[in-house]
Amino acid sequence: MHTLLLTLMIISGILLIALVLVQRSQGDGLSEAITGGAEQLFSKQKQGELRLGSNG
């Protein structure tokens, strides 16, 4: 019984991984959220403010 459950869990895990890898992307998701924050932080306007703040 233990072997049967272990086998089913391994097969279902492999199938779940395969389904996630095969599905088509619907957008940038989390990577867009991370890079969008970095772009906003290091934009030209913000870079100027950071330089002025460090010199004053």
Automatic annotation (TrEMBL):
InterPro entries, per the entry: SecG
Heme found in the keyword field: no
Organism placement in taxonomy: Bacteria, Bacillati, Bacillota, Bacilli, Bacillales
Pfam families membership: SecG
Main location (coarse class): membrane
Family to which the UniProt record says this protein belongs: Belongs to the SecG family.
Keyword Transport: yes
Subcellular compartments: Cell membrane
UniProtKB keywords: Cell membrane, Membrane, Protein transport, Translocation, Transmembrane, Transmembrane helix, Transport
Function: Involved in protein export. Participates in an early event of protein translocation.
Any single biological process term in GO: protein secretion
UniProt protein name: Protein-export membrane protein SecG
GO CC list: plasma membrane
PANTHER family the UniProt entry points to: PROTEIN-EXPORT MEMBRANE PROTEIN SECG
